[in-house]
Amino acid sequence: MIKGARVLAAGAVVAASVVLLQGSLASASPPGSAGGGGGHDDVLRFDVQFSPFDYTDLGEPGPSPADLIVFHDLLSRSGTEVGHEVGSCVVVDADGLASCTAVITLDAGGTIAYSLENAPPPRKVLAVTGGSGPFRSVGGDGVLVENGDGTGTLTLDLDLEDD
């Protein structure tokens, strides 16, 4: 017999994990031209408004391997929305530990992809794994900090190739 998916309300350990995972980005514009040699660094800082908690319980009742978390967060800078991020996490153990991937889309153009391990505490380190448009050759890392009130900050330290 196939188990049906059960969508749970935000709560308990998984809710805390999701809040930590979400809100990875806020807003930014594509990097300006830095001129020069083979590449340059750019730091993007965002305010994040996390989406409501969306958890699908696919395994044993409660947090368990194979459960899913999805999100669609808003990114802003100085109070102006500059983009959004969408992503998903697969829960890997009953403590709510999850493997997450996401894509940031900036209103000014381009996308940035990243991955992270989602678990407490509220400070998460992420790996920037690629992008499109002005970010097509991007790499780097970032830090997502969740404030515990549905908001957070995201800082990306990007390594970009000059064209």
How many structural domains in the coordinates? 1
Low-confidence spans: 1-37
Count of helical regions: 1
Largest sheet: 8 strands, antiparallel, barrel
Mean pLDDT: 81
Give a count of the beta strands, DSSP E runs of length 2 or more. Answer: 10
Query: How would you spell out the order of helices and strands?
Result: EHEEEEEEEEE
Dominant shape: globular
| Strand coverage percent | over 45%
Cα end-to-end separation: 55 Å
Could you characterize the architecture of this molecule?
The chain is mainly beta and 163 residues long. It has one domain. 6% of the residues lie in helices and 52% in strands. The protein has one helix and ten strands, in the order βαβββββββββ. The protein has one helix spanning 12-21, and strands spanning 6-8, 39-49, 55-57, 68-77, 80-91, 98-106, 111-118, 123-132, 139-146, 151-161. It has an eight-stranded antiparallel β-barrel with strand order 2-4-5-6-7-8-9-10. The longest helix is centred in the first third of the chain and has 10 residues, at 12-21.
